[in-house]
């Protein structure tokens, strides 16, 4: 652990500030790209199934890299890790900005991902070790404010840039900022660390890469290739087998790459389960709304981005407020209220029509983001609070890994549900239309009729996928009822574990 970062001393605000700016830039770049995908498809002449790898590949690299961050954080200094991470991210941004063929763009994105995968766990670990438990909620709330600011401005900024400039400007805009953050970190970050005797198990890295990478690839490919594709079920099977082998190997090692024993702490295990379920539900809004607004309603990228802006701003503003409320009331009250809002708004999204007003969409989405803000950070912080300090790197790495996996699974699940429902409903509508169709229709009328059928079928598919997300969010709500305020499982004064049974560490 970092010897210069101690909860008994003044928190290293300079280090935290530099890390937060770096993480903000990484998050901003990720949200910038979503609305630009149609423009990239047109310019580089690639299909939807190909361009989605700009997102899937990013998640894939994150899923492979994040499990190693627990080792990296324990082995190296914050300064060295930050410089390597920001260096990789900056290099990837430059490469992507000058890409004129898709493989070059994809390579740039994956280099970016290798850097950003280190930044998030590194920042969270510094936050956890810098603040005492009674102030940690407020600190993590500020952390949430910074990171939620990126989704707040990302879609709107991206929509404006794509409408007025080439999509490469998205990367050119980020490059000088990332370079400035890298130079700032080089000159300002100063931290020392005692030599840590820890070695990385390369076979565990291989198993982890195949396990998490196989699951992410398989589930991410299911939406476009279908569950019956060998590329899908074989990679999922290989990933599952490798992951089981990886877990068993970690449990047998004294110093594992990723410590699965942290799931012995009940509040951490519960928080991880809730976070995974909520992440899956959250992707329904992030994934389905752009399809509904731009494909069915013809709303421009700029207006689609503006529609998401109030909700993202509200989520960012509420993050530090929820942090202070967490310190005062604990995580259960916040999570239950937030998930009730998420369930209700998810149901409202399952009732969309082709005449639903823009204002109605803005209000529902804003309420949904308001609810989400009361869940993610408080639940995650409550779980991490129960871990002994030596397990913080493993806890943050595990959280980020599980979010990547659950995000990929949620995306694949919802895309598959939407596609299957759209296809089946289109057949039903076409069969009904055939019974009442006259044989004297013009080709133009037939084409328009088919277009109307597909629009209605896709709307039904989107609504049904949102309806499924209602049950996903409801599952998280049930789990949230069992949250208790977590107390540290380690005596921070004596440095000894306060009990042999971690189950007893969860207070009311």
UniProtKB/TrEMBL annotation:
Membrane-topology descriptor: Multi-pass membrane protein
GO terms of molecular function: transmembrane transporter activity
Ranges annotated as spanning the membrane: 12-33, 53-73, 80-101, 113-131, 138-157, 169-188, 200-219, 231-248, 268-292, 304-321, 333-352, 358-379, 462-483
GO cellular component, one term: plasma membrane
Keywords: Cell membrane, Membrane, Transmembrane, Transmembrane helix, Transport
Signal peptide (UniProt feature, chain positions): none
Major facilitator superfamily (MFS) profile domain span: 15-488
Subcellular localization, as worded in the UniProt entry: Cell membrane
Domain of life: Bacteria
PROSITE patterns the UniProt entry points to: MFS (PS50850)
CDD domains documented for this protein: MFS_LmrB_MDR_like (cd17503)
Family classification: Belongs to the major facilitator superfamily. EmrB family.
Protein name (record): MFS transporter
């Amino acid at each position: 652990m970092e010897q210069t970062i101690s909860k008994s001393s003044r928190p290293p605000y300079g280090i935290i500030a530099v890390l937060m700016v770096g993480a903000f830039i990484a998050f901003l770049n990720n949200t910038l790209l979503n609305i630009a995908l149609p423009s990239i498809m047109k310019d580089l002449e690639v299909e939807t199934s190909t361009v989605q790898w700009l997102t899937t590949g990013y998640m894939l690299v994150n899923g492979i890299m994040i499990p190693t961050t627990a080792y990296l954080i324990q082995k190296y200094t914050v300064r060295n890790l930050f410089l390597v991470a920001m260096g990789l991210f900056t290099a990837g941004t430059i490469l992507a900005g000058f890409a004129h063929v898709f493989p070059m763009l994809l390579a740039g994105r994956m280099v970016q991902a290798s850097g950003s995968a280190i930044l998030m766990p590194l920042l969270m670990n510094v936050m956890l070790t810098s603040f005492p438990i009674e102030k940690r909620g407020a600190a993590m709330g500020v952390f949430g404010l910074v990171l939620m600011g990126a989704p707040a401005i990302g879609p709107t900024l991206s929509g404006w840039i794509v409408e007025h400039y080439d999509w490469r400007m998205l990367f050119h805009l980020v490059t000088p900022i990332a370079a400035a953050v890298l130079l700032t970190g080089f000159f300002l970050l100063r931290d020392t660390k005692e030599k840590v005797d820890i070695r990385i198990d390369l076979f565990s890295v291989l198993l982890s890469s195949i396990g998490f990478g196989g699951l992410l690839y398989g589930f991410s490919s299911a939406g476009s290739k279908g569950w019956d594709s060998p590329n899908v079920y074989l990679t999922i099977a290989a990933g599952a087998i490798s992951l089981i082998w990886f877990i068993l190997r970690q449990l047998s090692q004294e110093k594992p790459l990723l410590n699965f024993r942290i799931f012995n702490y009940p509040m951490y295990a519960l928080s991880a389960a809730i976070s995974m379920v909520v992440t899956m539900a959250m992707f329904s809004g992030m994934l389905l709304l752009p399809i509904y607004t731009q494909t069915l309603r013809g709303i421009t990228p700029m207006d689609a981005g503006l529609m998401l802006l109030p909700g993202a701003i509200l989520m960012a503003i509420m993050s530090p407020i929820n942090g202070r409320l967490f310190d005062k009331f604990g995580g259960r009250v916040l999570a239950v209220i937030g998930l009730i809002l998420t369930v209700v708004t998810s149901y409202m999204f399952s009732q969309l029509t082709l005449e639903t007003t823009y204002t109605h969409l803005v209000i529902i989405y804003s309420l949904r983001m308001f609810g989400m803000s009361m869940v993610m950070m408080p639940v995650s912080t409550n779980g991490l609070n129960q871990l002994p300090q030596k397990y913080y790197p493993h806890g943050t790495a595990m959280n980020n890994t599980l979010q990547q996996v659950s995000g990929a699974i949620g995306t694949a699940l919802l895309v598959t549900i939407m596609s299957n429902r759209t296809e089946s409903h289109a057949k039903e509508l076409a069969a009904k239309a055939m019974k009442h169709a006259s044989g004297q229709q013009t080709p133009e009328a037939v084409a328009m009729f088919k277009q109307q059928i597909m629009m209605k079928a896709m709307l039904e598919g989107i609504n049904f996928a949102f309806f499924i997300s209602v049950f996903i969010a409801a599952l998280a709500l049930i789990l949230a009822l069992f949250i208790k305020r977590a107390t540290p499982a380690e005596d921070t004064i004596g440095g000894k574990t306060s009990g042999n049974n971690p189950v007893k560490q969860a207070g009311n």
